[in-house]
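Ops channel
N.P.: pipeline sanity check, posting one input/output pair.
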Protein backbone atom coordinates (compact mmCIF):
# COMPACT_ATOMS: atom_id res chain seq x y z
CA UNK A 1 0.00 0.00 0.00
CA UNK A 2 1.27 3.45 -0.89
CA UNK A 3 2.18 5.78 1.99
CA UNK A 4 -0.35 8.32 0.69
CA UNK A 5 -3.11 5.71 0.92
CA UNK A 6 -2.11 4.79 4.44
CA UNK A 7 -2.17 8.46 5.49
CA UNK A 8 -5.56 9.07 3.86
CA UNK A 9 -6.98 5.99 5.55
CA UNK A 10 -5.72 7.26 8.90
CA UNK A 11 -7.43 10.59 8.25
CA UNK A 12 -10.64 8.83 7.21
CA UNK A 13 -10.53 6.78 10.42
CA UNK A 14 -10.38 10.04 12.40
CA UNK A 15 -13.19 11.61 10.35
CA UNK A 16 -15.54 8.63 10.31
CA UNK A 17 -14.73 6.56 13.39
CA UNK A 18 -14.41 3.40 11.26
CA UNK A 19 -11.32 1.18 11.20
CA UNK A 20 -9.19 0.68 8.08
CA UNK A 21 -10.52 -2.87 7.81
CA UNK A 22 -14.08 -1.57 7.81
CA UNK A 23 -13.28 1.14 5.25
CA UNK A 24 -11.46 -1.29 2.95
CA UNK A 25 -14.03 -4.04 3.46
CA UNK A 26 -16.85 -5.03 1.14
CA UNK A 27 -19.74 -3.69 3.21
CA UNK A 28 -22.25 -1.62 1.28
CA UNK A 29 -23.83 -0.34 4.48
CA UNK A 30 -23.85 3.47 4.51
CA UNK A 31 -21.61 5.39 4.95
CA UNK A 32 -18.77 2.91 4.24
CA UNK A 33 -18.95 3.09 0.41
CA UNK A 34 -18.80 6.88 0.65
CA UNK A 35 -15.72 6.63 2.88
CA UNK A 36 -14.00 4.53 0.20
CA UNK A 37 -15.06 7.00 -2.49
CA UNK A 38 -13.70 9.94 -0.48
CA UNK A 39 -10.31 8.27 0.00
CA UNK A 40 -10.15 7.24 -3.66
CA UNK A 41 -11.12 10.70 -4.80
CA UNK A 42 -8.41 12.22 -2.61
CA UNK A 43 -5.85 9.87 -4.18
CA UNK A 44 -6.99 10.96 -7.63
CA UNK A 45 -6.74 14.61 -6.52
CA UNK A 46 -3.11 13.85 -5.63
CA UNK A 47 -2.49 12.82 -9.24
CA UNK A 48 -2.98 9.07 -9.11
CA UNK A 49 -5.00 7.51 -11.90
CA UNK A 50 -8.38 5.99 -11.17
CA UNK A 51 -6.84 2.57 -11.85
CA UNK A 52 -4.12 3.00 -9.22
CA UNK A 53 -6.45 4.62 -6.68
CA UNK A 54 -8.99 1.83 -7.14
CA UNK A 55 -6.34 -0.87 -6.83
CA UNK A 56 -5.14 0.68 -3.58
CA UNK A 57 -8.66 0.36 -2.15
CA UNK A 58 -9.48 -3.02 -3.65
CA UNK A 59 -12.09 -1.50 -5.97
CA UNK A 60 -12.83 -1.62 -9.66
CA UNK A 61 -11.85 1.70 -11.26
CA UNK A 62 -15.37 2.13 -12.67
CA UNK A 63 -16.73 1.85 -9.13
CA UNK A 64 -14.39 4.61 -8.04
CA UNK A 65 -15.38 6.85 -10.96
CA UNK A 66 -19.04 6.24 -10.08
CA UNK A 67 -18.18 7.19 -6.51
CA UNK A 68 -16.73 10.51 -7.64
CA UNK A 69 -20.04 11.30 -9.32
CA UNK A 70 -21.83 10.33 -6.13
CA UNK A 71 -19.62 12.70 -4.11
CA UNK A 72 -20.89 15.57 -6.25
CA UNK A 73 -24.47 14.43 -5.63
CA UNK A 74 -23.84 14.11 -1.89
CA UNK A 75 -22.39 17.59 -1.56
CA UNK A 76 -24.97 19.25 -3.84
CA UNK A 77 -27.98 17.81 -2.00
CA UNK A 78 -26.62 18.27 1.51
CA UNK A 79 -25.90 14.61 1.84
CA UNK A 80 -27.22 11.28 2.90
CA UNK A 81 -27.16 9.79 6.38
CA UNK A 82 -24.15 11.74 7.65
CA UNK A 83 -21.85 11.36 4.64
CA UNK A 84 -21.49 15.14 4.29
CA UNK A 85 -20.30 15.48 7.88
CA UNK A 86 -17.68 12.77 7.28
CA UNK A 87 -16.65 14.36 3.97
CA UNK A 88 -16.26 17.83 5.51
CA UNK A 89 -14.22 16.48 8.41
CA UNK A 90 -12.07 14.37 6.07
CA UNK A 91 -11.36 17.37 3.80
CA UNK A 92 -10.40 19.47 6.82
CA UNK A 93 -7.97 16.80 7.98
CA UNK A 94 -6.49 16.38 4.48
CA UNK A 95 -6.02 20.14 4.11
CA UNK A 96 -4.46 20.44 7.58
CA UNK A 97 -2.09 17.58 6.72
CA UNK A 98 -1.02 19.37 3.52
CA UNK A 99 -0.10 22.47 5.50
CA UNK A 100 2.20 20.54 7.86
Amino acid sequence: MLPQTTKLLELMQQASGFTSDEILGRSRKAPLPACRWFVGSALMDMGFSSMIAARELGLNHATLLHGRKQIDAITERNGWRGEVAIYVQFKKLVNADKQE
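N.P.: looks fine end to end. DSSP finds six helices and no strands in the chain.
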